[in-house]
Amino acid sequence: MRIAVASGKGGTGKTLVSVNLSAAAGLDLADLDVEEPNAFLYFGDGPSTIVPVSRPVPSIDEGSCDLCGECARVCAFNALVRLPRRIRVHEELCHGCGACARLCPHQAIEEVDHEMGVLISTASGERRLVYGRLNIGEANAVPLIKAVKASLAPGRTVLMDCPPGTSCNMVEAVRGSDYAIMVAEPTPFGAHDLALALDVLERLEVPHGVAINKAGMGGVDIAAMCAARGTTVLGAIPFSRDIAQRHAQGRSLMDRPEDRRTFLGLWGAVMKEMRP
Ligand code: SF4
Ligand code: SF4
User: Which of 60, 81, 183, 210 is the most exposed place for a label (fewest CB within 10 A)?
Assistant: First the structure.
């Protein structure tokens, strides 16, 4: 089972839910927020393996190129620029679509590997963590998110801490999940972005429910909003300075029985939802 943990916006507590649900239920974790992975901070100092991840980018053979400019015209991402004497390649902007190589009339373009980041695997006891780390300056995280998902061990249930928002990165991360836990905070901004993210999950046909974080703050009734949409509320994590402080210090919330009960209850609600 692949269970996405997502949120309409950053700062709602997606990582707090992911790492503590993983600890409470003994689940593997994948951090797909490859632009700023942080789940590893809660996984101890176990040994890790690091594998580079590449994507194809064009390389121009200047001897064969007549500077016709067709490649720069076809590139939808402005990754190729025709200069007076050569074609300049901005590798960090390239999405690896292959159109330029296919349309070059002189076969002057070859695709070569460009390292975009790394895939890191580690473990804490029986639980495994895999995450991607995108190189600084890379504009497109999607291939690395795909690489992290492709590396997940078959036959094990994994929580996937997804990028926030409703961008391409979030869509790629949640796509194909068996279930999605949408973390929401009861603020006007949180409710607005939650509605957008729920629309995305509905379009992707990913079954989902909502976990309310910082319950008691903000004054927005997320439960009523979910009821109006027919969306299940899986549970609520109270707005607590103590929880925020322990999480900010990189500590697990599992050392307090009442917090452990909260996350076990959340997991029980997810299991109930997923039961056929
Ligand atoms: S399409 Fe081919 S020949 Fe034309 S400018 Fe690009 S690389 Fe050069
Ligand atoms: S592979 Fe696609 S995105 Fe990359 S430079 Fe060529 S046309 Fe642009």
Answer: 81
